[in-house]
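[09:14] KT: can someone run the structure on this one? pasting the chain below
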Amino acid sequence: MRYFIPFLIVLFALAVLLRVDFFFTVAYFLFGLWVLARLWTRSAVDHLRAGRRFGDHAFTGDTVEVELTLRNTGWLPLPWLEVGEGLPVQLQTTPFQRRVVSLAPHEEQRFRYDLTCRQRGYYAVGPLTARTGDVLGVTQRDLMLVETQHLTVYPRIVPLRRLALPTRSPLAVLPARAPLFEDPARLMGVREYQRGDSPRRIHWPATARTSRLVVKQYQPAIARETLICLDLFQDDYSRQRRYDATELAIVAAASLANHILVSEGLPVGLATVALDPLTGSRARFALPPRRERAHLIHLLEILARVQFTPGDADGADGAETAFVDLVRRQSLDLTWGATLVLITGRAAPDLAHILLHLQRSGFAVTLLLMQPDRGPDGAALTGVPGVPVREVWSERDLEAV
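[09:31] RB: done, structure tokens below
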């Protein structure tokens, strides 16, 4: 009651002016009731415990179950408690209804609701707020029971069963004419032991058969390192298809990274410039190629939360685009023979120059165009021989990459 205290003040003043004992009795009674209600509510709130439990990572299409727990640890009952949960619209199947419960001494109640992960993102779940008071509604208190937690929804991963990439594909360990290093999984033969050979290379069964000391000889190979360069500058995508094209580009990057690291067991990295919702500003993400599973999780977490960012498609005075500058800078840290997969939505004029430069520098390059506009820019790319260009319009097209 908002006007309970002013009412008491008026009643007490009236009792003083009229000197009526009954008014004094009513005023004292109501004042005692107000004090008792405040003490009761404060004690009940101090002994109220709440918790929220759910899996904070999921993939697109998953359903996440959230469990809320309310417990009264005190000896006084909680007459009523109205709770509400702040939820993002993108995760709700039905609007979350505010619930009113009552808790007896040492009673615990649990209730659940589901979150449907319809699209990737970094979402805030909560806070869990509540309102409580006494039975008569004399006092009420608003409080926050559980702070905001976050749910990371990974992008969709399209299974890539067959990859029709050129010989210098990043998705294979290829034989090399120059013995840059040897692959211990590819036994090519044996040879006689020479001074300085490691004892680990001795082929003991062949030594026993030939009665002479021989060592294993492995096939030289190059383990391809792959760097996925993801373009998230909004001006590099068609205005009519900007959101769908960038989301498809993120799905393509996640699918390629998952296949390279999980199915092929090869190192993969990611480079992009995007809007980071954690900081609210543009950030550059550069993960060098690695092959650990934890590295893949880190890569997927970045792809889950990044958003396209404003940026000029063409630099001033003929300067290169921001995406081309990103590719050029990241290629400086790669080893010779590495592969770059460029994912963008526009065949910029200076993109052909960087593709030719990368190819002459000893890199294998593949270009994926996400829902590009039909225009003359694509003709410039045909002048770079040996660089495969794929247009991707849907997730089905990724299976043919």
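[09:33] KT: thanks! The mean pLDDT is 82.
[09:34] RB: yep, looked fine to me
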